[in-house]
Design a protein that fits this description.
It is built from two helices and five strands; from the N terminus they run ββαββαβ. The protein is α/β, with parallel strands linked by helices. It has one domain. A five-stranded parallel β-sheet has the order 1-2-3-5-4, with helices on one face. α1 links the parallel β2 and β3. The radius of gyration is 12 Å and the shape is globular.
Length: about 90
């Protein structure tokens, strides 16, 4: 589950619309889910590529992965390259 507001960061991910929002969330100890333009936009050491993404080889489906479980798990934040019909409208 992704939220724009901080409600329960231990069980939900913070949806970050841009790098600035992601950094603010990380500074508050929150994990984020962020859509990026490309693989080069993933912040090394802070984010990992979504394992369910095409770019990661769709290794697992979200229902089994559980990496988007908020800060209750100790894992890096998740980033996924923009995809689908709206991807051309992404403003980073």
């Amino acid at each position: 589950m992704y939220l724009v507001q901080t409600i329960a960061p231990d069980i939900v991910m913070r949806s970050a619309d841009n790098l600035k929002e992601a950094i603010q969330a990380w500074d508050n100890g929150e994990r984020t889910f962020r859509v990026v333009k490309g693989l080069d936009d993933i912040v090394k050491g802070k984010e990992i590529l979504c394992p369910a993404s095409k770019e990661a080889g769709q290794k697992v489906q979200c229902i089994q992965c559980k990496l988007c479980s908020g800060s209750k798990i100790k894992a890096k934040s998740i980033a996924i390259p923009a995809h689908g019909a709206g991807s051309k409208h992404l403003v980073a």
